[in-house]
Each structure stands twice: as C-alpha cells, then as structure tokens.
Design goal:
The complex is a heterodimer.
Chain A: H1 10-25, E1 35-41, H2 42-50, E2 61-68, H3 76-86, E3 91-95, H4 109-114, E4 118-121, H5 125-134, E5 139-146, H6 151-164, E6 169-175, H7 178-187, E7 195-198, H8 200-206, H9 212-216, E8 222-224, H10 229-244, E9 250-252, H11 264-273, E10 274-276, E11 279-282, E12 286-289, E13 293-295, H12 304-307, H13 323-327, H14 359-366
Parallel strand pairs in A: 1-2, 1-7, 3-4, 3-5, 5-6, 7-8, 8-9
Antiparallel strand pairs in A: 10-13, 11-12
Chain B: H1 4-9, H2 29-43, H3 59-63, E1 68-76, E2 82-83, E3 86-87, H4 88-101, E4 105-117, H5 122-139, E5 142-151, E6 159-169, E7 185-188, H6 194-203, H7 220-229, E8 235-238, H8 243-255, E9 258-262, H9 270-279, E10 292-296, H10 298-309, E11 318-324, E12 331-334, E13 340-342
Parallel strand pairs in B: 4-5, 9-12
Antiparallel strand pairs in B: 1-6, 2-3, 4-6, 7-10, 7-11, 8-10, 9-11, 12-13
Helix pairs in contact in B: 2-5, 4-5, 7-10
The chains are: A alpha/beta, B alpha+beta.
C-alpha cells in the first residue's frame, strides 16, 4: 500500500536499530539505570506494541508510555456523568468506538447500551450532527473526547450546528490539552525521563512552538514523531542523538504532517468555541490546572453539561491502582500490584488498562502477561 | 391408508399480501401459505415435501458417506441482511456447511429455523429463501426440515436464521487440534478479513464507502481437495468471528503448543488493509466466512498448498506460520517491521480507535 509500506520497511528499520544501539551505548546515565524516553501519545504506544518495536531496542533504552490516551485518562466521575446523559430516554448518545468500554463507577457506555440507553458509535462528530438533523424530536449528544487532535472537529461541528440552527445537538465536552499535562509530568518529584517523543497529531494542530519550554526550562529534548514504525524509530534515534550531543531542542520528525506553526484555522475554531477550565481531573494523575477545556458561554446551548443536569460527583481512583507511577515511568505496567489480576482489559481497574492505546492494556495484549516472543532478543514485553 | 400421495397432490399455498403479519406465525392457513410459497417453493425436495414434524433419513444413505455423524448448529444475525458478496440466507447455509466440512465431514442435510419480525416484505423473504436454496445446491446439501416464527415488531431485528447440519465423516479421517505437532505448518486458503470489512462498510454508519465484498462461500469442496492432497492434515477450522487471530489462539491452547506467524506472508488485500488503517482495526481479528486455517505436517504442506491454490476458493492460499514448541497456548507474530509481538484473544469486539 503506497505511502504506508514505505514507512514499515524492515531493512531500513534494521539500519536504524543498529544506529540506535551505537548511540545508546555511548550515553552514560546516572545510577546505572536505562535511558528513559517517554512517548506522550497513545498512538505511539499502539505502534510500538503493534510492530514489536520495544523488542528491537537495546536493553539500555526504555520506553515509558505516557498519558496521551484520552480514553484512558477520563476519570470515573465524568464517565458516570456521560452515562447519566445517555440514559435519558430523549437522548441519542453518540461516541467514538473505544470510549464505549471505559468503566464508570457503576458501568460503561457499553453496559448502559445493553441496559437500554440509545448509544451509537460514530466515526466523526459530523455523523452525530447528521443524526440530530434526522431525529429532530430527540436530543443528540456527542461525547467530545480527545486532545487537540479531535478538538477542532467538535468545534467545527458546533459552529456548523450553529449556522444551521440545529437545536437538538450538543457536545459533552471532555477535551483535554497536552501542554499542561506534560508540564505536570515534568514537575513530578520522582521524574526520571531523559527525553520525549512528542505527539504527532496534536502537533499538527498546535504546531511545535508550545513545547519550547520543555527544552528551555526543563532541559529535556523532544522530537515530534509520526506514527508509522519507521517514524517512531527515527524519532528515538533523534532524541538519543540530542542526548549524546548534549542538546535540548524541540525537533520535528513528522514534518510531512506537522507544520511548525500548526493549523491556524483549526486553532481559530477551537478558540472560538472553547475556553480553558481552571482545572480538569485525570484518571491516574489527579487534578491538573488548565488541562481541560469547556464550551464558552456563547455556545452554552450546545453544551450538554449545561443542557442536562449531571451528577458531577468526583470519584477517587481505586487505591491499589498505580497508573500514576506507570505514567511517569517510575514503574513498568507489570510491576503494578493489580496488573493482570484485579485489573485486566476485561475488567479494567485503572486508566491504562482501558483502551488498546493504554500502556497496561497494550502490555497485557501484546507482550506482558504470557511471556516473551520466542526468538526476539528482548521479547515484545519483558514480563 | 397411506396419505402421503394425497399430501403431495395438495395444491401449494400462496401469499397474497405484501408483508409478513403475526397471522403468518399463527399456525393456521396463513402460515401454511407462507411456508408453501416462500420456503417449500425454494427448498423443494422429497424429504421436505411431506411437511411432517420431522424429516426421516435413511441410515443406510448416511452410512454410505462415512462411519460417524457430524452434527452442528449455528444462529445467524447480521446487519445489514444483504451485503456485498452475500446475504443472511447464503451466510446461514455456508456457515453450517463449513462447520461440518472443517471436521472432515461431507455435509448432507440442513434444517432451517427462521424468526421473522412482523412487517418484513414477503418478496424479501422469497429472495432470502432462494439464496439459501442456491447456496445449498452449490454445497450439495438439502434443506429438509424447518420452522418459521413471526414475532412482534421490535422483538427481533428483522430476521434471524438458525441452521443445523448433519454430515458424515469418512472412516479414515480424524481431525483434531490436539493432533498438532511442533513443526507443523499453518495454512490459510486466501485473503483475510474480507467479510468483516464488507459488513462494517455495508452498515454505512462509519461513512466509509468500500468496494470490499464478503468472502462468504461453502468450503466443502476446497476442504475435500485439501484432504485428498494432504491426508495427514491435523486440524482445520473456519476463521469466522474473531478472525484468524482467535482461531490460532484456540488451536495453540488446545494443542498446548505455540504458534508463530509471519505478518509478511499473511494475505490481506490492500482495500481491507486501508479500511483497517483508517478505523484502527486489526485485520487478523476481522471475521471471514470463506476462510479456513489448516494445520498440516510439514511434509505434506507443499501438496496441501498446491491443492488449495488449484481450487477457485483457494487461489491466494498461503503459508502463514508454524507450530512451535514455545510457550503453550501462545501465538506470536513476526511483524512486517521485523519486530515480534503477541497475538492474543480479543476481550470483546474490536472498536474503532479515536485518533
């Protein structure tokens, strides 16, 4: 398949792996620990597991799977709110597929659907708007979720609904922003990361300038990375090269998609519809200042949170869950007390077991629980 | 007095209304008319014609095909009922025929139980019955008994079909996952994931237009060809729900052996790959309705592959991996990129990813 297979070339991968081994061998890390690079985005985590990239890397290099799976980090209280809306008899609740399984305190959307709620999977918020046009007697609510990647599409849908005067469409807004989240990780006292793979699709919208503080104030290198396996390998190589050369810069490996300045039209739509919340609650990470957006007062009529009364109850993460430590790279998924026992993809306990992009789920499914690949030096996982 | 000849002479009933109503499930004249007009007209055969409470089979006939009976049942629900490459009727016949054939049985007879939601069009029912009949003919089986129920609107999604099948297994055949041995070769008969992608595309709710057609087909002849060329074949299973990944896990678990597959030799058409790329799905977990996974000893793998490739339903047959003595029950894949990953069972159904 053109424009896909080129980025999955095994021969080029081997060359890059050799380069990575050479550079990594020359980097000295204090305390004899491995070099730790965090991929912020869940899409990268998925690629890393899907293609078995971790097993191709030298043992002295460790990938830490970051918080960039918006489905995973949604707190239980918000899921409960969304189920309360979905269970209203007048509502058609629309959602991206992988948000269906996120557990609330009582149930997931999938269970709510089984109990009779009209929950429908859509591929785009525009599909939800089309449903609203087709069902004028029902309230169609779209589950707005995701980082800056999906934010413009919900913003544009709201603007379209406004233009058309569609009054039975609203968004339950759970959009989150990436920069405060990276900052929260960088500020954590037990941080050990040596560099970052920056989120490719978020950066396509916001550009690369918002990350400059990471290099300037925290002295960590970041490479904005694409999602094909060669993109990931090349970006790892670029981060290592920076570390080796003592540089801390924001580099852009994904230049074929990510413009330095981002997408100004998308950003305008986002700024028009959304404003920053003072804080937003994250599963596994707690409350992070300015890390979420809500709809501006001018669009209140499209805001499901204002339109429907929601319980709005804060529910603490389960005590035994160590998602926060996994997210920060302090422990590996299989080192968590409940991994694979109380917490499995079937009955996810913590955030990272929820979506296939969550680090724990990926380890469980692709690498960690049953053992290693037979003839791979490090195995797909390393349990 | 033998009344059978009289029954045969009874004129066939005819439905004169355009849609099915609850009256057609009431057991009276309307129901007789529906059964005559729709099902008997399509399935017409001497074992069904008396419309008794049971079809009566001669054991001698069965015994000519083998020394053991194979007996299987499956219910079919699909949305939409008609999709590129097939419909629920074709699916209901192929599914049960294939479940018999993968056990090494010659499929012989099917039953057909239909649950219909009131309001469905009679012409549509005729179309589905004709499709079942044509597929049964192609598969060399007869539909010899059946049942029809009509339920209230909303009590079922338009139409459900259950087919049960009987076949006979030749004395010299004994297939089983536990017969797999380390070193055996894993074969598939063609391109994977077509049915799953076709159905998802045909539903239309993902707003993706796709030219992909279901691979739905009766595989009895392909399997007979394979077994003739590779009589020591260990095990065959059709890779329906859960796709090839799920079947491989089931085999590895039953055999207490590991299976290793190679992504580069896993045949998937570009349209299906593209479809999966866009939706964030894994084609290995997409359903097939005309694909088998066969475990064959290495010394017969070449002839098995050649035999399948010589058959119209096996042109794109391929060796996708091997049984190995590794971790019992584990399926791994050497990725196209050169890495290695575990291919596990899915928890639930695959859901498109957010971004």
């Amino acid at each position: 398949m053109k424009y896909v297979d080129e980025y999955r070339d095994r021969t080029k991968a081997l060359i890059l792996v050799r380069e990575i081994e050479t550079i990594a061998a020359g980097i000295k890390v204090p305390e004899g620990r491995p070099i730790q690079i965090m991929e912020v985005c869940g899409g990268h985590t998925h690629s890393i597991f899907r293609y078995g990239i971790e097993g191709m890397l030298p043992k002295s290099l460790e990938l830490v799977h970051g918080p960039g799976c918006p489905v995973c980090v949604l707190p239980m209280g918000r899921v409960d709110d969304c189920i309360a809306i979905a269970e209203r008899p007048d509502v058609i609740f629309t959602t991206f597929g992988d948000a269906m399984r996120v557990p609330g305190s009582r149930k997931s959307l999938l269970q709510a659907k089984a109990d009779g709620a009209d929950v429908r999977m859509v591929y785009s918020p525009m599909d939800a708007l089309a449903l609203a046009r087709k069902n004028p007697a029902r309230e169609v609510v779209f589950f707005g979720i995701g980082f800056e990647t999906t934010m413009p599409s919900t913003a544009l849908t709201v603007l379209q609904a406004e233009r058309e005067g569609v009054s039975n469409f609203s968004v339950f807004c759970n959009h989150i922003t990436i920069v405060p989240t990276i900052k929260a990780i960088l500020d954590s006292p037990d941080l050990r990361l040596d560099g970052f793979l920056g989120p490719g699709h978020v950066s396509m919208v916001i550009g690369t300038a918002p990350y400059e503080f990471i290099a300037r104030f925290y002295k960590k290198p970041m490479v904005v990375a694409g999602f094909e396996p060669l993109d990931v390998l090349q970006s790892i190589w670029m981060v290592l090269k920076q570390i080796k050369e003592g540089r801390c810069e924001i580099e852009n490996q994904y230049a074929r998609i990510v413009p330095q300045a981002g997408n100004s039209r998308a950003l305008r739509a986002v700024a028009r519809v959304y404003e920053l919340r003072e804080f937003f609650e994250w599963r596994g990470l707690g409350s992070i200042d300015h890390s979420g957006v809500r709809m501006r007062a001018a669009y209140a009529r499209f805001d499901a949170e204002r339109k429907f009364a929601v319980p709005n109850v804060k529910i603490a993460d389960p005590k035994s869950c160590q998602c926060g430590e996994v997210l920060k790279g302090v422990i590996k998924p299989w080192q968590c007390k409940v991994f694979g026992t109380a917490c499995t993809p079937e009955t996810p306990f913590g955030a990272l077991m929820v979506s296939s992009e969550g680090a724990c789920s990926a380890y469980y499914q692709y690498g960690g629980v049953k053992g290693q690949c037979n003839d791979s030096p490090a195995g797909a996982g390393a349990a | 007095m033998n009344i059978a000849p009289l029954i045969h002479r009874r004129p066939r009933g005819k439905v004169h209304v355009p849609t099915v109503t609850l009256a057609h499930g009431g057991g009276g004249r309307a129901m007789k008319d529906l059964v005559d007009d729709v099902f008997l007209a399509a399935f017409d055969n001497p074992l069904l014609a008396p419309l008794d409470d049971q079809a009566r089979l001669e054991l001698g006939t069965l015994a000519r095909h083998g020394d053991r009976l194979a007996f299987t049942t499956d219910s079919f629900v699909v949305d939409p009922l008609i999709f590129p490459g097939g419909d629920i009727g074709k699916l209901a016949v192929c599914g049960t025929v294939n479940d018999l054939a993968v056990g090494g049985a010659t499929p012989l007879y099917l039953s057909c139980a239909v649950i219909v939601e009131e309001g469905i069009s009679i012409d549509f029912l005729r179309q589905i019955a004709r499709s079942m009949s044509a597929t049964a003919r192609q598969a060399g089986v007869e539909i010899i008994t059946g049942d029809t129920k009509v339920v209230n609107k909303g009590a079922c999604d338009k139409m459900f079909i259950t087919t049960t099948g009987i076949g006979a297994i030749r004395a010299d055949l004994d297939l089983g996952a536990d017969r797999a041995r380390a070193g055996d070769v894993v074969l598939v008969n063609g391109l994977l994931g077509d049915h799953g992608a076709a159905i998802l595309g045909a539903r239309g709710d993902l707003a993706l237009e796709s030219p992909i057609a279901s691979d739905c087909a009766p595989l009895h002849d392909l399997i007979a060809t394979l077994l003739a060329a590779a009589p020591s074949t260990r095990f065959i299973r059709d890779a329906t729900r859960g796709g090839v990944a799920t079947v491989l896990n089931e085999i590895a678990e039953a055999a207490r052996l590991a299976i290793e597959i190679d992504e580069t030799s896993t045949p998937i058409r570009d349209e299906v790959r593209g479809f999966c790329e866009i939706l964030g799905l894994d084609p290995l977990y997409l359903a097939n309705e005309g694909k088998i996974v066969a475990i064959v000893p290495v010394e017969q793998s070449r002839s098995a592959l050649d035999a399948m490739r010589s058959h119209p339903l096996g042109c794109a047959a391929s060796t996708i991996g091997r049984v190995t003595p590794g971790h019992p029950g584990q399926v791994t894949m050497r990725t196209v990129f050169g890495g290695c990953r575990i291919v596990d069972m899915l928890v639930g159904e695959q859901l498109p990813r957010i971004c």
